[in-house]
Amino acid sequence: MIRLALRTLRLRKGGFLATFVAVFFGALIVSACGGLMETGIRTETPVQRLAAAPVVVGGQQNLKLPEDDPATLDPEDKHKFENATLPERVRLDASLADQLRAVPGVTRVVGEVSFPAQIGTASVLGHAWESAVLAPYTVKGEAPKPGEVVVDAGLGIGVGATLPVAAHGVVGQYRVSGIAEAPQAMRDAAVFFAASDAERLSGHPGRFDTIGVFGGDVAAVTKVVGDAGIVTTGVARGVLEFPEAGKSGEDLIVLAAVSGGLSVLVMVFVVAGTLTLSTQQRQRELALLRAIGTTPRQLRRMVLGEALVVGVLAVGGAVALGPVLGQWLFGRLAAHHVVPDVLRFAQGWLPATVAAGASLLAVVAASFVAGRRAAKVRPTEALAEAAVERRWLTPIRLITAILCFAGGTALAIVTVAVMTGPVAASTAGPAVMLWAFGLAAISPGVTKVTAALLRWPVHAITGVTGRVALLNTRVGAVRTAGAVTPIMLAVGIATANIYLQTTQEAVSNQAYTEDLRADAVVGSPVGLDPSVRERVRAVPGVAGASEYVTSTVFVEKPFDGNQDKDGWPALGVSELTGNAVEVPAKLGRQVGETLSLRLGDGTPVDVRVAAVVAQRPGFERLVLPAGLLAPHTTAGLAPQLLVRAAPGVDAATLTARLREATAGLPVFVGDRDALIAAHAKGNEIGAWVNYLLVGMIIAYTVISVVNTLVMATAKRRREFGLQRLGGFTRGQVLRMAGVEGGLIAAIAVLLGTAVAAGAIVPFCLVVTGSVLPSGPLAIYLVVLTIAVVLSLVAILVPAWAATRGRAADATSAGA
């Protein structure tokens, strides 16, 4: 039967090409997502500034959080922990460098600090000159003394020039004593200071970002470092140089896992639909094989053999091109600053293997489903089965639908009853797929019912051609469902994900705007010196000014069951002082209680609850003194100062006075609209990622729709010929096909809308109190238009080709 399967490939090119396309694009997307996941797992970041040091020591960026309250556990029980990533750079005490110098075999130990600086409008990173050996940089000129700098050769500045250099909130005049040339391309231009200047400007005196070690045994170095930090060699050193790559890697893993998993599920249904339709169109051929003595097992083997041959060819091409698509997707993510541009895309054999295995498994499962009915029928009923579609509802379909609908209902209940704020999307999102798969499992029956509901408007608008189209749709429900299902998936996934995203954005922007009391902002890329606040407060027309610092903190004691590995968002303001903290009511604390926190850089601190506030659900945060929070951020200073105008002072007057008062300082001044726009832009980055990956999956379903409709329509040449012989004109046949395409689009849009509503409505009830999402109606209209145009083009073009020539020739060719 395998030999027969190979021979049928030559005679059934259309159906097998359709299967090839479905498997190829599904495996391609899964392989690309696998490459993104592997990139996130490896987090390979080529080392640049630290390349010459064979061993680099950095701070421990992981924090262990207990999963259960330690106070309730038996001391003998093994505690379970989850790893959280600290959002701020964890620095090392300078005394560790002295300990490392005492390690036998170590020839040199160099501490390194890195801090943002500006020379004119150019953004650079400042370092101590002693750390130039870690690259190593070479200098033309002399090493810097206090008050001098060595600048990067790429800045085009000559020796002897005097420059205003802004760093750590202040501007100083420095003489250029030398020009540094890097041994390789660097992401960031460098400016080197004398050790005393660098320690002052780093904002973290007595601390190193990293320590480079030359010579010595790695094991001995690791023993000395202990729990104070981590020891890296090789490519792992890059993560210490660019710590943002570590968190981006985690985000990339989640992103790829969700997208890849969604792609696999969509692929299973698309491939199953394509193979089922292809097998159904060959029902007469398969029936004849049964009638002449072919056993059910042989028939299943033939269908499986055909599918596997096509599947292997499709998977082979997909895994070869998977890294190309993965690299392109990674490039788009890097270009939009979703991942750092220093992160290296890496895709080995494992994603290809997973993609191949998942795709071939989908092919095997789909071929089993497709060949099962034809193999089970008795030979005496075979030809009758080929003539008319019979029972489509199987126990497997029914059980699948029941389980999916039950799961979707359960998630909807959880979303409404348990979730709060934008986090409700974590349960609303998966509900889309459950509703979609439930409908897909019983799509022939749902298609018949929906077509019956559309009978009267179709009759009223289209006349006799519409009647025939309705009859074709209802009689050929399995065939029609094969086209409806992928469109329904595309409409449901697109509508739900886009409106979930737009609603999240709208709620976030609304919350930020309503909570914002500032009329202007003073900010700086190198941090704001505390003296700027006093200068701003003295400006006429200023009612108040507060530093604005954001970070993440972790509650250690008392145990917080609401806390996950992402910790609590923290806001630092000037209105609070000392160790006071304002907490949300959700935390369950009382005024006067003491909380033990871990700040963003891992520093432990005890704070006293000064206020308990009922905050907006989903946007809860801890509010701490800016003076406490800012020194434990990577920058070490507040990046913004929010300013409120006095009554009667307009925004234009306020910003003009602020610019005048801060002239000569390394700051910028913006109005309230600038703050809101900056917040909205941050939301757009996350939205862009969602749109990109959802768009990729929808593009796959679009290809599958065209694939399925073209295959289904092209096989109806004989049917069209008989209709023309019966009195239909070619134009009437094409109009009938157009009505069928419109019916397919209408049914798919209705079902897709129902699928999307199953996720959108519970989510919106939680976050906005309305059943309707936020976002322009044009989004839905565009999705609807694409579905209609797609259906009409995919069915009319092959119908036009199938009705060319004489009707008699078409009937004989199709026999």
TrEMBL record:
Coiled coil: none annotated. Its main location: membrane. The keyword Ubl conjugation does not apply. PROSITE patterns: PROKAR_LIPOPROTEIN. It comes from the Bacteria. It is a multi-pass membrane protein. The keyword Transmembrane helix applies. It is found in: Cell membrane. Keywords: Cell membrane, Membrane, Transmembrane, Transmembrane helix. Residues 260-377, 692-803 form the ABC3 transporter permease C-terminal domain. Pfam families: FtsX (PF02687). The chain crosses the membrane at residues 252-277, 307-329, 349-370, 398-420, 432-456, 477-500, 688-714, 743-771, 777-797. Belongs to the ABC-4 integral membrane protein family. This is FtsX-like permease family protein. It comes from Amycolatopsis melonis. The lineage of its organism: Bacteria, Bacillati, Actinomycetota, Actinomycetes, Pseudonocardiales.
